[in-house]
Structure to design on (732 residues):
């Protein structure tokens, strides 16, 4: 019974994808979207039922679908495990996916590749479920690559758009952004693969439980190497510095994609990996501390870039980066359950925020510059409400979801005695509040700057707004489930409790964080609620330009990596490939060609000539026979 | 006394004559004659060696060759006639149509 549910949860999106693919080339048909959404909903219901089962019984469900690789000593089955961690991910993924699918029916309304879009989107959900449900590292890797491919397909969904210079469009074009995302992930995936190899060489298995059981017997340096290699994989997928540039460029994809893949699910796969492999990371404190430090740095680094950005979706993308940094900080400090909790809460409010941004884009005819919006509250009051809720949650204002999860991470940093990390995270919380509300105020309040552009915005379809409501509700109430979630998840994950000392200070700590968050909002209100006042002195300052250009890192990568790489490739092509490899092959081919061409002349069509040649052959044979008789 | 070597020499001379005919002649009919000469040169050698060793196998083989040569001539002449009717010539230089 439960086994069937596992398969339903896993394969319903796959069926949806295949179904939509049948109509991939034909023109828009609404029922394709409805069927795909319905199958996703079925998957969601199955996931919830599995979750209820796991909560009630506390035992994980482990199914082995079939043998996959059976060669020599390698035995890797297609197995799936539904335990506390994976069921949490399943519910989050399928819930957000269902909402995004329904949303897409409205959002992709005018797109002629409507059916194709649903095919990709459902395929993504399937890959993501494989990733979270697999019971071994290789299955996880398959899902990992699957989501990568789907991300590539979806970021480059509008592949026909031409390339533009970086000054006009920082992402250049959808197909460029898609390739960038894919290639960056490929770099990281090499690390991931090496990690998997290290694990296999040293334990002889890839099943999670068997690997973790053997960890205590391995030397420390192997553990460190495996942890580092796996984390490099996680850095790529979760867009951590220095592999972060693809995430903001991936905003070239349709907004539902950004909401689902680049906010709620795929980018959290790296965090999921660290949580999943927590026994390994728990035994490598140096690596874990590096993860925490890097996460904290990225949290601050991304938030700083979001402060001045003008692009609605890019601001949210930076905030995603920043929140992923928070999750890594928690996971690196050993608070795995807090990281997972923030992951889930973040999925809800960030998806809501993105979908709200999608509504705004839809209304503004794909205009994304918040400097050209303003005063949209009048026409889009539901979207304003949703984005307001999501931003409050993101800023960590009680009683919204983000308050509980993010506050816990900040407390963890304090509790661990890593005060530098704590200070940075607190400051970042203030920055988060500021940029979220800068964006909300510039979009929805103040003077109606869009009128100068001749745009007549309108609210999104009713059913889309209704479909978004579950996320809004969860963004408000998810935090209240924290004690319950704690109890549930720590049956599998190691518990993390604040020390007595932290407990005493908890009110003070919370007050400090809240002060920063509220301060950020108030500052944003003062600066932007009345309307946009631009100060050329500020905008031309060095720091502003540094932040607005993402610290010039994309340019740096282009100059330092892309261009030299292209030059080396060009040289190798001209010098090595053409002059050596191709030349060798061509010479061999030419030899045979010319020989054939020469010998061809023998065939004159004249029988007499042939007979002469035959006689020559006969004489030659005779000579050979005579010689061999003499010698032999 | 005429010995084995004399027969073999005659056979070799005949074979060479036939071979030169095959190589030098341009007329298909002449080629046929040349082939017949070569075949019969071989027959002489067979018969002589058979007699020399007192083994009838060689002479039997000569009969086979005569039979096969006869049938070959029958078929070959038929083809020649058809060729002549079609092209009006049996000169090999005129019949060279399958050039590479």
């Amino acid at each position: 019974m439960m086994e069937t549910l596992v398969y339903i949860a896993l394969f319903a999106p796959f069926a949806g994808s295949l179904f939509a693919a049948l109509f991939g080339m034909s023109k828009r048909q609404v029922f394709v979207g409805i069927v795909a959404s319905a199958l996703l909903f079925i998957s969601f219901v199955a996931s919830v039922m599995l979750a209820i089962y796991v909560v009630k019984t506390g035992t994980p469900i482990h199914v082995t679908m079939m043998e996959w690789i059976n060669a020599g000593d390698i035995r890797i089955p297609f197995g799936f495990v539904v335990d506390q961690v994976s069921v949490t991910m399943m519910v989050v993924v399928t819930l957000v996916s269902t909402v995004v699918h329904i949303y897409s029916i409205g959002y992709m309304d005018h797109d002629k590749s409507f059916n194709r879009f649903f095919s990709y989107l459902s395929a993504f959900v399937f890959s993501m479920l494989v990733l979270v449900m697999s019971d071994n590292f290789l299955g996880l890797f398959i899902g990992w690559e699957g989501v990568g491919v789907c991300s590539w397909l979806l970021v480059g969904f509008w592949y026909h758009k031409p390339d533009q210079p970086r000054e006009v469009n920082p992402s250049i074009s959808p197909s460029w952004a898609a390739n960038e995302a894919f290639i960056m992930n490929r770099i990281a995936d090499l690390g991931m693969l090496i990690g998997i190899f290290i694990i296999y060489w040293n334990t002889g298995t890839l099943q999670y439980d068997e690997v973790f059981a053997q960890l205590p017997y391995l030397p420390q340096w192997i553990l460190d190497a495996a942890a580092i290699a796996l984390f490099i994989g996680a850095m790529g997928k979760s867009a951590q510095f220095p592999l972060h540039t693809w995430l903001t460029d991936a905003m070239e994809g349709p907004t539902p994609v950004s909401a689902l893949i680049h906010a709620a699910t795929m980018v959290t796969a790296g965090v999921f990996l660290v949580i999943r492999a927590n026994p390994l990371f728990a035994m490598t404190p140096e690596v874990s501390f590096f993860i925490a430090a890097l996460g904290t740095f990225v949290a601050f680094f991304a938030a700083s870039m979001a402060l001045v950005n003008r692009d609605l979706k890019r601001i949210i993308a930076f905030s995603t980066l920043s929140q992923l940094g928070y999750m890594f900080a928690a996971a690196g400090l050993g608070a795995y359950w807090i990281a997972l909790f923030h992951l889930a809460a973040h999925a809800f409010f960030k998806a809501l925020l993105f979908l709200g941004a999608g509504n705004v884009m839809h209304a503004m005819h794909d205009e994304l510059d918040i400097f050209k919006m303003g005063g949209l509250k009048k026409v889009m009051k539901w979207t304003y409400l949703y984005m307001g809720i999501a931003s409050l949650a993101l800023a960590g204002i009680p009683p919204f979801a983000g308050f509980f999860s993010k506050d816990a991470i900040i407390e963890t940093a304090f509790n661990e005695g890593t005060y530098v990390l704590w200070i940075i995270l607190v400051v970042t919380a203030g920055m988060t509040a500021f940029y979220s509300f800068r964006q909300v105020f510039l979009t929805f309040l103040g003077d109606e700057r869009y009128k100068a552009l001749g745009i007549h915005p309108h609210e999104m379809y009713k059913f889309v707004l209704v479909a978004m409501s579950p996320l809004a509700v969860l963004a408000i109430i998810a935090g209240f489930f924290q004690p319950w979630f704690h109890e549930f998840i720590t049956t599998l994950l190691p518990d993390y409790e604040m020390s007595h000392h932290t407990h005493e200070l908890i009110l003070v700590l919370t007050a400090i964080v809240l002060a920063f968050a509220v301060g950020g909002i108030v500052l944003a209100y003062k600066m932007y609620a009345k309307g946009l006042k631009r100060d050329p002195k500020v905008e031309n300052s060095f720091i502003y330009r540094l932040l607005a250009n993402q610290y010039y890192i994309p340019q740096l990568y282009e100059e330092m990596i892309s261009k030299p790489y292209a030059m080396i490739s060009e040289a190798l092509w001209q010098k090595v490939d053409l002059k050596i490899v191709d030349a060798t092959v061509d010479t061999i081919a030419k030899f045979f060609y010319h020989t054939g061409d020469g010998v061809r002349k023998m065939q004159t069509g004249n029988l007499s000539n042939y007979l002469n040649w035959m006689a020559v052959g006969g004489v030659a044979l005779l000579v050979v026979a005579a010689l061999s008789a003499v010698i032999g | 006394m005429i010995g084995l070597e004399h027969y073999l020499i005659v056979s070799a001379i005949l074979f060479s004559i036939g071979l030169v005919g095959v190589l030098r002649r341009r007329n298909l009919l002449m080629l046929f004659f040349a082939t017949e000469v070569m075949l019969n040169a071989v027959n002489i050698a067979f018969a002589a060696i058979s007699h020399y060793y007192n083994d009838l196998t060689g002479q039997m083989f000569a009969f086979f060759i005569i039979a096969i040569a006869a049938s070959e001539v029958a078929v070959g002449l038929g083809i020649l006639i058809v060729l002549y009717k079609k092209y009006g010539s049996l000169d090999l230089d005129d019949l060279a149509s399958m050039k590479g």
Summary: Residues 553-600 of chain A form the longest helix (48 residues). The first strand of chain A starts at residue 61 and ends at 71.
